[in-house]
Amino acid sequence: MIERRLFGSRGRAIVAVLLATGIACSRSHKAPQRVLLDEEAVLKGQIEGLRELQDRAEKGTLLPRDQIIVSVSEQLVKEMAQLTLPREQVVGDRYRVRIEAVDVRFQDKHGSVRLDGRVSPVDRAPEDVFADVAVFGLMDSVELDAASGDLTARVSMIGFELKHVGVFGETRLGRRLLQELGERHSDDLRALVFPVTIPVHLEKEIALPGLTGSGPVRVRAATVPLSVRVADVVAHGRRLWVALEVSAGEWKVR
Amino acid sequence: MKKADLASLERTRDELRARLAQTLAADPRIASAPDADVVIGVPVDFASGLVKNVTAGFLNRVEIALRDITIHAADEVEAKSRLFGTIKPGRFALDMTLQEARAVLVPGTPRVDFKGERLKLDLPVTLTRGEGRAVINFFWDSRGLGSVVCEDFTLLEPVAGRVRPAVYTVRGGFRLAVEEGALVASPEFPDLVVHLVVEPSEETWQRVDKAIDARRWTCEKVLERVKVPKLLEALLTKGFDVRVPRSIFKPVRLPAAFQESVSFEGRTYRLGVRPLALRVTPEILWYGADVQPGAVKPASEPAQR
User: Fold this and answer.
1) Nearest in space to B147 (alpha carbons), one of B223, B213, B90
2) For position B125, what pLDDT does the model report?
3) What is the interface size between A and B, counted as CB pairs within 8 Å?
4) Global pTM?
5) Interchain proximity A60–B271, CB inside 8 Å
């Protein structure tokens, strides 16, 4: 039995992209036939993204000329995300979810993420009733923490897949619990997606030290604040490209 | 949807992928990016603009203040007399104590030229907004018959004026290199020597003239011989050289750098960061690093940049 929830056509497209392009966790899933039903949306989404990239590439606007560019490989982002695995969370106060694997793909404009794990009721032993869960997300925004200057890629959940596995999971109780998870607690699964830090730090200011002493020349210490804004995020060539608009403010003498 | 239609969409997608790959491969800016886990690209125009801004920032805060400097001039005065021929009625000593002279540097618009990993820079700076205060102490020391003509006296007068504006060119540059995960522009400038000249105000001249006029007329003749105002002007225009040390320029870290550790959910993770050399292209400065995510750091160790 398979429970599948996807949020919007974009979500369906991405999930199918992930599956169609062969992303899978380390355990082998037998891809259900119904995944192929989304192939049209997948392909249309890919084509739309590729056309936009092609248009920008031809206009020479894929890389900005006046903004700082940060580019990170999908392999590194995957490894960064794996640092926090396995991770276990309780969702909807009723389900324990253990995420064990992550995969990341940067192509056709969108960054996509797949988390694979196992879900079981909190009041039962995990081996009694469980299902494999795959959570699909889009890594479509990057945020700059104004206080720390750290760059963080945000993942928004777009869908999930539940699949019964194991002998004990096929009990009536198990089916009912997992059906309820799919129907009533799907939003709670959003808590499973987590941000990934891009190991690049942005300064908030440039500080120039002063010069004092007994000589005739004195230089007052000053700072110039830097305003940094994420201007664009796009995935292609197995890399995530982040454009940062940086502007310097007025000098402030200290 | 029919299989044939899906196949058609697939063909379209594959063609677009191939076309995009070709376009991107032909884009010199993207193709020039180093192959590394993390890459930071800084457009040359952006780096130039930032370095210009920072260089102006260095110079814009320079204040020059000279204090308590005394210049001394002294000489014997000779005069011709119908009765006695050439006589030496006395000596004068003029001490000018510069109590304070202040000025600031105001940078103009720099010219920047990228040459490899060096950013050359010509920047006009104006010595301006200066003013000075001094005290002149003129002492007349009469000798022999001179005391009959003009006996000893002291003239103590304050002098005020402005520092004469002057334009200098600062020539130097910055060497760009990746240091500790950041693109650092290290300054390469010589010392800048500026010449500070105080020009007395009109009021000062009037006061000096008035002080001379207040002497006996015979003394006036002596003072005319000495040409006090000219002497004073000569002393002031000689001016003072002030060395603005190159150390006012400091290395500048450009605002994006690789991190050697990251914190997440209260845990800090070490990252093995191996920066690659700076790659300079006509449009973008690229620097990259291979990153190996590592172990959890003990809680006592703070996150590093």
Assistant:
1) B90
2) 93
3) 188
4) 0.79
5) no
